[in-house]
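Assemble and predict.
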Amino acid sequence: MSRNTILTILSILLLFAFLYYASHHFNQYTIIILNNIAITMIFAVSYNLINGIAGQFSLAPNGFAAVGAYTAALLSLTPAQKQAMFIIDPIMPILGSIHLPFLPALIVAGLVTAFFGFILGFPVFRTRGDYLAIVTLGFGIVIDIIANNAITITNGPLGLKGISSYTNVWWSYGWLLFTIFVVMSIINSNYGRAMKAIRDDEDAAVAMGINTFKMKMIAFVVGAFFQGVAGGLLAHLITTISPTLFTFFLTFNLLVIIVMGGLGSITGTAISTIVIVWGSELLRVFDQPMHIFGITTPGIPGLRMIIFALLLIFVMIFAREGIMGKKEFSWDWLFSAIKGGRKNAK
Amino acid sequence: MLTTIIQQLINGISVGSLYALVAIGYTMVYGVLRMINFAHGDILMVGAYLAFFGISAFMLPWWVSFTTAIILTGFAGVLVERLAYRPIRNANRVSLLITAVGVSFFLENLFLVLFGGVPEAFPIAPIFQGVLNFNQIYLPVVSIYTPILALVLLYVLLYILHHTKYGMAMRSIALDIDTTSLMGINVDIVISLVFFIGSSLAAVGGILWSTQYPSINPLMGIMPGLKAFAAAVLGGIGDVAGAAIGGLVLGISEVLIVAFFPSLAGYKDAFAFLLLILVLLFKPTGIMGKELERKRF
């Protein structure tokens, strides 16, 4: 085993030790944030495969998340629960009788979402650039409207309640590691290099004999799979889902994360996920009454969003390359940085 | 049956011209900056609110209030461009898009915090009041004014674009912004003008929208914004006449679908995007669209 493999395994063990400690000692609120970070990171990493690595400017993740969340929730709810919940219109008979354990439900959710991604791929990859963004944006809106109106499947605006809270740090971080492993494997394979070639110059990539449709489709379907799984994890974390959860705002948050981290850098995505998820929790103080230097400001709900929007515009103006650019963390880089640091110290 | 069709067709044309007015603003900004201005729908909301304040808070006559609102909204658009978009004009597409969405969230939440989320009743100006009746076909006056106004404004805009120096500068920027600035054209002023015109048109759209559906709230711009955007793309984004056609096609087909298949009414808003996806499948650059330069993203 090489030094790097050992170090990677050690750091994963360290992460699990931390999670073990956290799940026994941290309060409920902190644990939900920890879960939230992992789930958002699954979303963001798989999203970055499409946007950052393959260069296809998709705005679909809120649609994918909704498909995954609804599929997983409908599969894991018991038939009795479903019968009781669908009060406007009874649930579709086939869906009403299915009941699966958590893991199969998540995997099916991922597969169903991947299938949606596959179907969507045909119109999407006939277009390029901004047109692609628009078609994928439209997909998210269509899914949102279906979630609101296909009452026999989704229970409409009421959403689904009473979903078992299966998601814990082990599930979410387990899936996160698996996602990062798969995405990194793709990036470091021939497929990944072909995807980067398409991102940097599509016409040249075509001229080199790369099957651009196939490459884009692989990125899209793999990304959709993990976004579906993340949607399922999210549904089982918050236990209540409704169409309002999966509006464009979700996509926008992820877009901010991958741009802030650096389009095309998985390390950057991971860092900026933590910054954004944690940071937006911290911003909650702005919605509550504040005491600054003896002056008390009233709580203004919505102020948080104004500050979020302003911060964002500032970040885009002053730091648009992102935290990591296109670079990735590696042990070699770390050691050379330490050595370089020592040399400089001397 | 015939009366129903005519009635629905007129409703469709009226809604379609609203989409067209807003879509033109989208398309102009896209044409010069190659950016999707997500805040355009919220500019429409700003226009509607300004008109509302003019009438109900400042007690201005409706035409003074509307004119002031349209001009002020134009300046609001210029301000947004100056503060948020100009500093990153040369950045990549994604940063531009995020900034635009940021501006959109900022405007929505600013108005939510300032005025609350409760919808306000929009006062209908005297000239827009009333319904005409021709042989069982009922025409609200506003749905007659809307297409006429849209046509006139479209004509004025096309005239500006094709017969004035500023119009020539706009078209030149759309082709190549760097070369245009080398030719001694003040690109900043021309882009400000584009934002002024686009935002004023959005304000006109907002006022007409609020007259047809007489209530306003801070989130009212989202759906018309998205629809107009779909319309702009449907027509071929960057093409002013295309945006108008796209808006009409979208409005008419939407109204007809709901009229003939009432059970699909809930899916009305999805229809715009399904139509869009369908059209792009066969014509990937929209109805009037030309192949855009490829490598900028």
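Chain B touches chain A through 48 residues (CB under 8 Å).
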